[in-house]
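User: Let's play a game. I give you a shape written as tokens, and you guess the letters that built it. Ready? Here's round one.
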């Protein structure tokens, strides 16, 4: 009886040890997998975007859930705090058109507070990334992603607000003492604004922090009568990141 009892205790210990070893092995495997994922992630971060990688949670708070960006996306996406603030002004708006959607930073935030978003992007690879990121935030059903050139599509688009965050020309924009609207890509700011005006007078432009604010403000005079305007400085962690200019109906810009 004593021998049988001792054998039973040894067997129980063996089972517990096996379970413990299995748990430890699973933990090691998860840590190994996470480490490999991080190394792979870092290997895809080029020297050009390393500084932005350290700001990844400012760009997307859900970055670790599986957010994906291409190289241009790292330095062109609107920081989430700023995108959320811009979207909040139009909470409850019908249709918002994001003319240069990129990897989806602004479209996602607009989709959280507005009824619907039409996100236009000329690069199909970016559209795939933006669509993936929208799923992570649970707003994919509120966004129609359209692959195309905004200037060609503008005459056929209908919306209540147009959001314009055109390419600034990469990180080199910072070297300009005074960033003028003709430096915007793919066309100058005047052409861009006029294309948006064909859709709605309610226009938002997200521009570099060193933009010529007076020149940007003068875009309001392209409309008759001139559009109402508000200029806003956008900061993250106390640092100026960009300038947002709001044109149009003051009821939407509360």
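Assistant: Ready! My guess for every position:
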């Amino acid at each position: 009886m004593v021998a049988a009892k001792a054998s039973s205790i040894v067997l129980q210990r063996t089972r517990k040890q096996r379970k413990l070893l299995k748990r430890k092995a699973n933990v090691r495997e998860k840590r190994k997998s996470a480490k490999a994922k991080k190394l792979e992630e870092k290997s895809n971060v080029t020297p050009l975007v390393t500084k932005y990688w350290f700001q990844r949670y400012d760009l997307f708070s859900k970055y670790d859930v599986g957010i994906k960006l291409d190289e241009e996306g790292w330095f062109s996406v609107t920081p989430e705090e700023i995108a959320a603030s811009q979207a909040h002004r139009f909470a409850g708006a019908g249709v918002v058109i994001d003319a240069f959607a990129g990897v989806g930073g602004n479209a996602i935030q607009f989709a959280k507070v507005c009824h619907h978003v039409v996100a236009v992007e000329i690069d199909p690879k970016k559209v795939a990334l933006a669509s993936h990121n929208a799923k992570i935030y649970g707003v994919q059903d509120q966004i129609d992603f359209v692959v195309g050139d905004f200037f060609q599509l503008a005459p056929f688009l209908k919306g209540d607000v147009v959001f314009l965050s055109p390419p600034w020309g990469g990180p080199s924009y910072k070297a300009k003492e005074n960033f003028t609207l003709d430096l915007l890509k793919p066309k100058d700011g005047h052409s861009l604004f006029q294309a948006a005006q064909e859709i709605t007078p309610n226009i938002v432009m997200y521009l570099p922090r060193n933009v010529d604010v007076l020149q940007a403000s003068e875009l309001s005079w392209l409309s008759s009568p001139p559009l109402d305007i508000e200029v806003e400085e956008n900061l993250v962690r106390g640092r100026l990141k960009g300038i947002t200019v709001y044109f149009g109906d003051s009821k939407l810009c509360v």
